[in-house]
Amino acid sequence: MNQPLFPAPDVKxxxxxxxxxxxxxxxxxxxxxxxxxxxxxxHAYLHTSRIGRGTIRSFDLAAARAVPGVIDILTHExxxxxxxxxxxxxxxxxxxDSVRPLGSADIVYWxxxxxMVVAETFEAAREAARRIVVAYAPHPTLAADIRSxxxxxxxxxxxxxxTGDFAAAYAAAPVRVDAGYTTPAQHQNPMxxxxxxxxxxxxxxTVHEPSQYVNNVRFGLAEQLGIDPGRIRVVSPYVGGAFGxxxxxxxxxxxxxxxxxxxxxxxxxxxxxxxxxTVSGYRAETRHxxxxxxxxxxxxxxxxxxxxxxTSRADAVAMGAASMTARLYACPNISVRINTxxxxxxxxxxMRAPGEMPYGFALETALDELAVALDMxxxxxxxxxxxxxxxxxxxxYTSRSLMRCFDDAAARFGWKDRSxxxxxMRDGDWLVGWGCATAFYPTYAGNSAARVRLSADGRVHVSSxxxxxxxxxxxxxxxxxxxxxxxxxDQVTASLGDTDLPPAIVAGxxxxxxxxxxxxxxxxxxxxxxxxxxxxxxxxxxxALQASGxxxxxxxxxxxxxxLPAESMASLYRGRATPAxxxxxxxxxxxxxxxxxxxxxIHARTREIRxxxxxxxxxxxxxxxxRTAHGQLIGGMIWGISSAIHERSEIDHRNGSxxxxxxxxxxxxxxxxxxxxEAMMVAEEDHQVNRAGVxxxxxxxxxxxxxxxxxxxxxxxxxxxxxLPIRLEDLM
Length: 732
Ligand code: MOS
Hints:
By secondary structure, this protein is an alpha+beta fold. The chain has 3 domains: 19-30 and 445-579, Aldehyde oxidase/xanthine dehydrogenase, molybdopterin binding domain (Aldehyde Oxidoreductase, domain 4); 33-140 and 194-279, Aldehyde Oxidoreductase, domain 4 (2-Layer Sandwich), CATH 3.30.365; 355-443 and 586-731, Aldehyde Oxidoreductase, domain 4. It has 17 helices and 28 strands. The strands form 7 sheets. Strands 3-5-1-13-10-11-12 form a 7-stranded mixed β-sheet, with helices on both faces. Strands 7, 8, 9, 14, 15 and 16 form a 6-stranded mixed β-sheet that branches. It has a 4-stranded mixed β-sheet with strand order 17-24-25-28, sandwiched between helices. α9 (356-374) runs parallel beside α17 (705-717), α12 runs parallel beside α13 and α16 crosses α17. The radius of gyration is 26 Å and the shape is globular. Mean pLDDT is 96; it is low at 1-9. Bound molecules: dioxothiomolybdenum(VI) ion. The site of dioxothiomolybdenum(VI) ion has 9 residues, from loops.
């Protein structure tokens, strides 16, 4: 099946190209994986566990089987050719977590799939799934969350950092801060539900599933099913929000593939909103202890951050982003410890700036506490400790424009009018507070490939198995090809999200553009070489093609990212292209940086918290498309506000379930909560990070906002709140 091609909107020269797929999306022409209608589709519905830990004693399926239209019910007793066990992605597998649903009678988290009904209609499958009766033998103890006494805490030794002598420097310093911070469990809740459709034609399987990494799904699923990966095609031309939750193969996909093979019919599974809380990863709750010491001028003398992150008993997952916070400021004595806390919950995963958001909240709030202890402006505290060299290994930043971000955003925000004393900016019934914090996100890139075809009628087609999550991948691909070949944007078509295309990296780690743009540029360069205008200007390309007498020139290119060895190219063709960069390079560190400023208003009597104003400035290398980048940045900032004062997945401590697993009770901001959000892009050239000079903006917008808000709440009220989310009951 070919992807739909649609005319791109008109673009005038010099304008920022509009969103390539915007028209298709607003007209409903864009077909998401669950929109694909296949003949004779049977519908699947999950039944999930109602205990947090224990075993299944027996099933009573009689009432479920009696529902008209029910075709099949898969349980661990009936599945037969069950998918092979696979270690989680963190342990070398392809999959988000290693708990195989329907693999045994064991229950290791509430909401674990224990049965899947397949029926003629969605409604029949749902009705039958509700009529399944499971007899459980619950385990006598349960660790529901990070505070549970029965949760198992373990140090993650490889994430330990010791530079200088933290203990001695801290003890001797004149000014010190020592505080604890917490962040809650949160769920991505992409608007598009988690959906999978599987269809077999003979021994060939096509999977329609919204994915951030189609090749990972293909190769991982092949291993689980024990079949040749060449027989699997994964198609995902649009993803209706992912945010890390659709990053890798999930345990659901193989169940649908197996059901479709048993039936000889396509099978479609759409997990419900509530099921989405436990059948995918999430942002785990974290705890932090931060100790900072400085001289009287604010120069950091000692920095220690210890983190505790919730994980499942099955998979020891840790984001460990103190490896980044420890490198943000000049400091001679640094200590980092990371711990996992294993509880009876599903395995957490990536959620937009997965480590940077919580670890950044803790460090950047602690820095504000230090500024208060020093009676120093918090912007000046960052300036005093600004550095072009990271302090752990002494490696240079490829580029770092942090203070330009602070200065630009501060000017725009009007920071100079802030009166420093807490509680000093009251406006009638409203307590006004202004706060700021650093935003950071590591610059990653991975091996990727692309194909570009130029025809003599001036049309270009560019393809790469990257992913459109709403972030602007189609637009970027078409724009880069147009610019490199000197053709108008509206003459370019782009294909992505399909394992039949040249492979690309996971759409994660804010690395898609930094990885795929260089591959497109290399393919365009190969076209220019074929036409004898290598190194020439794009304007020479079309005349050269017309003079050559050729009708079509088509070139393929693969690009290896900095820091990856030659043998890593093979992993690109096995669905294992991992991003390199950030703090993981031997010769340098790579970060996008930014500054977040917010105003909060707290009502003197009701304690209602408003955030009427947020200004962010970000330096992220080359911005290919300011329009899509702006969407990413303000989207991230809005989510930052949400993470600070709205969102928390509430856990029932009796069974480890989520009490608010729906969009009515999981608190999200609406338009009335988000008033004035402004993202500025600070010009920055970086010729080292990658051929495109791109650092990526997918995640940085969310980082630092929560700290800026907690700092502003302190400024408004004089109360330091160190636990997210901050809600009005915390200010009573
Ligand atoms: Mo992003 S959380 O790296 O998908």
